Amino acid sequence: MVKLVFARHGESEWNLANLFTGWADVDLSENGTQQAIDAGKLIKEAGIEFDIAYTSVLKRAIKTTNYALEYSDQLWVPVIKTWRLNERHYGGLTGLNKADAAAKHGDEQVHIWRRSYDVLPPAMPHDDEYSAHADRRYANLEDSLIPDAENLKVTLERALPFWEDQIAPALKDGKNVFVGAHGNSIRALVKHIKQLSDEEIMDVEIPNFPPLVFEFDDDLNLVKEYYLAPKQA
C-alpha cells in the first residue's frame, strides 16, 4: 500500500493573533516551527519514506515541508511548489481579527463565511495590500485565475486539477507522497478522497499538528486513515 501524508503547516503568526490569513504570506510562530519539526520526527519514527513532496507557494507551508523532511532525514526528496495548494483565499476578511470581524458583521454572518461550503466572503479589492494580482509568484498565471475570494467549493475546484495531474498519478505509480499545505486546501482534498458530502466536510477540521496519513491500495481506494502519534514505550 502507498501512503499519502498530509501536514497542515504549523501554527502561523496570524493563527496566533487570531487573524484571517488566506493567501497572505505570513511566517510560522515559534510554536509552529516546533510543530513542523515534531511532524518530521513522527514521520521518522513511523518509518515513512517519501518519493516526492508537494507544497504551496506560501512560506508557512514551505517551511513546514522543509522541517518535516529535514527531521525525517529526507531533505533530499524532490519538492514541487504550486499555488493550487494555497490556503483558501479569505478575500476582504484577510488580515482582520476574527473577533473584530464578528463584531462588525455579526457572529452568524462570519460563521457562514467561515464554515459554509459555497458562500463567498467579501471580495478583496485589487489594490489591497494583500492582493495577489501584483505578486510576482503568480506572474505566470492568467489574471482571471487569481482569486479575490474563495469558499471551500472554489478551493476544491482549484486544487483538484493538481490532485488529478500530479498527486494521484504519483500514488498510482507506487510512490509515497508528502503534502505540506493548509487547513482548507487539505480539507478540500480530503472531501474529494473520501467522497464526503458538502455537509459532512463542514465537521472536518485539520489540526496544525500532527500529520494525517492515508493508505491506499493499488486502485487508489482508501484503506486506512490515521494521525501519527508517538510510539508507546
UniProtKB/TrEMBL annotation:
One of its GO terms (molecular function) is phosphoglycerate mutase activity. The active site is at residues 9, 87. Coiled coil: none annotated. It catalyses: (2R)-2-phosphoglycerate = (2R)-3-phosphoglycerate. Substrate binds at residues 8-15, 21-22, 60, 87-90, 98, 114-115, 183-184. The record marks 182 as: Transition state stabilizer. Pathway: Carbohydrate degradation; glycolysis; pyruvate from D-glyceraldehyde 3-phosphate: step 3/5. It comes from the Bacteria. Belongs to the phosphoglycerate mutase family. BPG-dependent PGAM subfamily. Catalyzes the interconversion of 2-phosphoglycerate and 3-phosphoglycerate. PANTHER family: PHOSPHOGLYCERATE MUTASE. This is 2,3-bisphosphoglycerate-dependent phosphoglycerate mutase.
